[in-house]
Description:
The chain is an all-alpha fold and 439 residues long. It has helices at residues 4-20, 26-105, 134-160, 168-196, 202-235, 237-242, 245-274, 279-285, 295-325, 328-336, 345-364, 375-392, 395-423, 431-438.
Amino acid sequence: MGSPTSRWTKTSSLAKLVFSQSTIEPVFNNTTLKLVLNHTFLESISNHTIQEHNHANQEFNHANKEFNHANQEFNHANEEFNHANQEFNHANEEFNHANLELDQANPEPVSNYTYLDPVSKYTDTEPLPHHANFGVFFYMCILMLVSNMATSTLRSYRKSLPFLRINQILLLNGYLVEVFNIFTTHLCFLTMWSSSVSYLPYSIGVFSAAFLHYLHNVSILIAMAISIVRALMVMKFNKMIQLDPEVWAKRIMVSILIPLAILVGVQAAQCYSVGFVTPQESFYTGLEVSDQPNLHILTIFITGSVSLLTAIGSYTFIWYYLNTYHNTRIVEAEKANAVKNMISTKSIIITIFFSILALVLVTVMRSHDQRRAPVNILGAGSFFPIYQVYFCQKPHIKAFIWRRHQLRITELKTKIFLVFKFLRPNNVVPPQARQAGLE
C-alpha cells in the first residue's frame, strides 16, 4: 500500500500533469491544485491511522483470547488442587479414626496422682501485683504475741514443778505446746511478710509451707504418743515409772521427727519439681492455685484419723481399766490429781478432731482466691493460739499464774521500797558532823 508521503507524491505529479494541459487560468489552476493535494494528503493519513487502529485492535483481541485461555487453565488447576485437598482431609480423618481405635484398644496406664506429671499445674506463671493488706498483718501479729505469751506461761509452769512430778506425759505436753508455738510463729511471720512487704519466691514459699505441714503432722503424732503413754502408765505403771522420763521423751520425739522429715521433704521436692501451688502458697507467692489435690493434706488427714482413733481408744480403755481393776478411792484420787494433766486426754481428742475439721474446711474452700483474702491461713493461724489459751485456763495453771503474779508484785514492791529507802534523806545529823560543820 505505501506510505502517505509516497501516495501524496504520486497524486501531486498526476495533478500537475492535468492542470498543466488545462486551459483554465494559471492562478485558478494553482489554487485548485493545492486544495486537491491537501485533501489527498489528509485522506491518505486518515486511512493509514484507521489501518493501524484496526491492527492494534486485532492484537488486543488476540492477547485477550490468550488471557482467557490462561484463566481457564488456572481454574482447571485450582479445581484439581481442591480435589487433592479433599482427598488429603479424608485420608487425615481416616488416620485419626484409626489412631483413636488403637488408643481405645490399648489404653495407657493413668496415674492417680496427676500432679506428679512434669508439667506446671498453675496457669498464671506470673504472680498478681502485690497489694499490702495491713489488716491481715496486724491480726497475725496479735496471734503471734498471744501464742508466745501462752507458751511462756505453760513453759514456766512446767519448770516450776518438782522433779518427782516430771514424767513422759508432762514432757510430751511441753513439746506439744512448743510445736504449737513454732507453728504459729512461723505461719504469722510468713503471712505478715507476704501481706505487707512483698511476695516470696516460689521455692521459699513451697518449702516454708511444707515446714508448716511438717509441724502439723508432728503435733498430731505427739498427741497420739501422749494417748499411748497414758494407757501404758495405767497398765504398766511400775515399769513406766522406772524409765528415765527425759531420755524416753526425747526418743519418742526423735522417732516422730526423723521419719516425718523424710516423708514431708520428699513430698515438697515433688511439688516443687512440677510447680504445684497450694492455696497457702498462693498467698505467699501470688501464683494461681493448682487444681490437683495436695499430697500434704492427704498425709495429715491419714495421721489425724489414726491419731483420733488412738486417742479415743486410749481414753475408753483407761476409763474401763480404772473402773474395773482399781479401787474407787484410788480412781477418785487419780482423777483429782490434775498436776500431771497439763493437757488432758479430752483436750487431746478435741485438738485432733479440730485439726481434721480444719483440713476439711481448707479442702472445701479451695475455690476461694487466697491471694485476695487468706481465709485458710487466718483460720489455721487462729486454731493453735486458741488452744494454747485454753490450756492456760486449767485450774492448777490459773492458780500458778496467780501465785506468780502475786510473787512478782511482792518483788516489785520490795524493790520500790528499797529504792525509796536508799533515796530518802537522813534528817538526823550525828553530833560529830554538827561540830565539824560549826568549825
